[in-house]
Task: structure prediction
Amino acid sequence: MSNATPIPATIRPDEAAHFGRLADDWWDPAGSSAMLHTLNPVRLGFIRTAIDAHFGSARRAMRPLMGRRALDVGCGAGLLTEPLARLGAAVTGVDASHDNVRVATAHAAAGGLEITYHCGDVAQLDLAGFDLVTSMEVIEHVADKAAFVAALAGALGQGGLMILSTPNRTAASRLLLVEGAERMGMIPRGTHHWHDFITPIELHDLLANAGLAMGNPQGIAWSPAKGLHLSDNLALNYIVTVTRAA
Result:
């Protein structure tokens, strides 16, 4: 009998099944993941600025991640992994859904991109030494947030950069993301569970317990004039850089 302490699972099977059912529609900008297609350029703008600031790459460099390894956790069908590959990174994507990995693998191959995909729990995969670790809109879906953050920390190499985004647990997010966007069909019903949203303070403490330091979060807000955009308003959603604590 092994005396090893079991690694807590972070995957919720019902969440994996929910997103897996969306897999074949993931790359349709007018389909069930249309909101992600609208959100992705906003996240990429933040990510590119963070990459340049952290690694000292030139702002106009076409491939600022050349020679670096990137890991996207909860990658879905590859909406972020593919841009990271085009920025020059050797990219690995991890997702809990076999269907998502199937679609992501096929889409990358069709685009001539070499991306390594794994289906499984990041807490139970042997992943380490990545220069960049990203996880967009994922932590609110996991079963054990502390174990999930610890797994992300374990995958981050020395001197590496982590970028996370997640909805904030506020009255505004409940009204707009759960009661509004899902009821209006902008987001598939059952995607969000408001009580699982995490506040910036809670995320800061989880990261600190894993030996990580959180930067100043930036909001992803919505307005009729601008649509989704980076903002000082954290009420709806926020994105943040993370490094190893000094």
